[in-house]
Sequence to fold (166 residues):
Amino acid sequence: MARFIGAILGAAHVAASGAAGSLTDPFFSNGRVARMLSDYWTGDAAQNDIISLGYVDWTTRFDAISTLDFTDFGTAITLDVGVANDVDCLIAAQDVATAAGSVSLLKSVAIADRRKPLWQLAGYASAQAARAATVKDGGRAELIATLKGGNPDTGTLAWSFYGSPQ
Fold:
């Protein structure tokens, strides 16, 4: 299984501890919605390959304007988006085989749950428990996209995720 990262931020994106801002950043001090992650990836992936969409704090609440755009990846291909312990907590089984399109990051989140922080959407008991489980990632959540189904064709994913850490 291969692992890919977006083209704009590259390897520095994964290594940077403050790529999506920090809780002490005055820009987020009032919980304003801001673009937290934006990038794209183009490539030829295999079944179950993982694409890193970036890192955010576990307390992040995503806004409904967050989108993931995709090209046609071939026959019988679906896409899940989530975190390592719950790979489809945000988007489950999105059809990326029929045609190019766009989907909300919160597609698979119930309307009543859309204001919950990421740690709750991922099934953790608390933000502290989520951070403890992701110490190797600096206690941050890595959002991942997983291509499932047959052998995907070459395609492109582009994302712009908005939200605010609480």
